[in-house]
User: Which sequence fits this backbone?
């Protein structure tokens, strides 16, 4: 049944919005014209809107506001990323599931996606607000052969991939705030959480969690977030299809990741600097060991933030919250 559904959606996806005749569909999925009609009715029940025109056939005019493995995989143009999708409607945290899958040998490129998280996490055990039907709550498992101390670079690479995807699909121009925030008009639209499974100096897996606010309205955010958070929908006044964002992000990530593995961090660093708002500005970096005040002069070859303090010395910041 679900295989047939995949085939049917694939037939529509291949047609890229044009009509597909009942005959073609029945050939593609290998069933009778009557069965095609039944499957189309089932799509309608699941929230798809379809136009049916005599002699031309069917086309999808609106997809349901849902993500699923099918929605993510049909039309996906990557080679390895997202080829294994673990989707659940509701989870505690996609990071937790990805940790378990990674520990059990899940292949590189596996993604865990949920419609809703009941215990979404930020850095340092902070909460990540992840309501149903609105955002992308996704964890990606990769297995790069890099030293442990280079892994923060992957947070920066992820941020570049997401900004590029947002720029490709929407008219907005997001900024990156070191290390893991993407902002639109000064408000946080994306948070990234990079976690590791590693020993001594060998990385087994890197689990990159991304939380992307896509279709929330202002009133959908809890009061304490309304001033500091935003969504792509709020900034563009439009509703966006989450699966398309996931596909675009994975494709951008795959391109940057292969560049990174073949040429190192340098080309990624240059791209990142083009989007960063946290450079050459006065700032306070709040770390677990206290605050550092000064001017951010850049990131080093590992992705570490360099702050020049008033006495002229340069401090390396590995992890912090930045106040501009
Ligand atoms: C982050 O932490 O920004 C990383 C967020 C990563 C979330 C993803 S979702 C998929 C995967 N599964 C998980 O469980 N997590 C990852 P941090 O820099 O510590 O920022 C956390 C702070 O952002 C919170 O303390 C709030 O102030 C704010 N915040 C919480 N939810 C938000 C939201 N939906 N949009 C914008 N800001 C939010």
Assistant:
């Amino acid at each position: 049944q679900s295989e047939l559904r995949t085939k049917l959606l694939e037939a529509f996806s291949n047609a890229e919005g044009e009509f597909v005749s009942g005959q073609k569909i029945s050939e593609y999925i290998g069933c009778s014209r009557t069965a095609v009609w039944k499957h189309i009715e089932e799509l309608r029940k699941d929230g798809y809107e379809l136009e049916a025109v005599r002699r031309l056939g069917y086309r999808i005019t609106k997809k349901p506001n849902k993500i699923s493995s099918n929605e993510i995989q049909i039309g996906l143009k990557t080679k390895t990323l997202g080829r294994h999708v673990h989707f659940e409607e509701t989870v505690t945290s996609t990071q937790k599931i990805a940790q378990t899958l990674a520990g059990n040998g899940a292949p590189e490129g596996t993604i865990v996606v949920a419609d809703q998280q009941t215990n979404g996490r930020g850095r340092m055990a902070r909460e990540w607000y992840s309501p149903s039907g609105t955002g992308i709550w996704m964890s990606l498992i990769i297995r790069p052969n890099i030293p442990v101390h280079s892994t923060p670079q992957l947070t920066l690479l992820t941020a570049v991939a997401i900004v590029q995807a947002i720029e490709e699909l929407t008219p907005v121009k997001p900024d990156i705030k070191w290390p893991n925030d993407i902002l639109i008009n000064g408000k946080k639209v994306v948070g990234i959480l990079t976690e590791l499974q590693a020993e001594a100096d060998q990385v087994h897996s890197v689990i990159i969690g991304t939380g992307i606010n896509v279709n929330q309205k202002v009133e959908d955010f809890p009061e304490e977030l309304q001033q500091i958070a935003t969504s792509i929908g709020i900034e563009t006044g439009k509703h966006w299809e989450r699966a398309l964002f996931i596909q675009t992000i994975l494709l951008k990530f795959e391109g940057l990741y292969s560049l990174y593995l073949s040429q190192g961090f340098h080309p990624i660093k240059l791209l990142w600097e083009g989007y960063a708002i946290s450079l050459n500005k006065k700032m306070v970096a709040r770390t677990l060991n206290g605050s550092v005040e000064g001017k951010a002069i850049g990131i080093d070859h590992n992705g570490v933030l360099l702050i020049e303090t008033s006495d002229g010395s340069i401090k390396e910041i590995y992890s912090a919250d930045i106040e501009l």
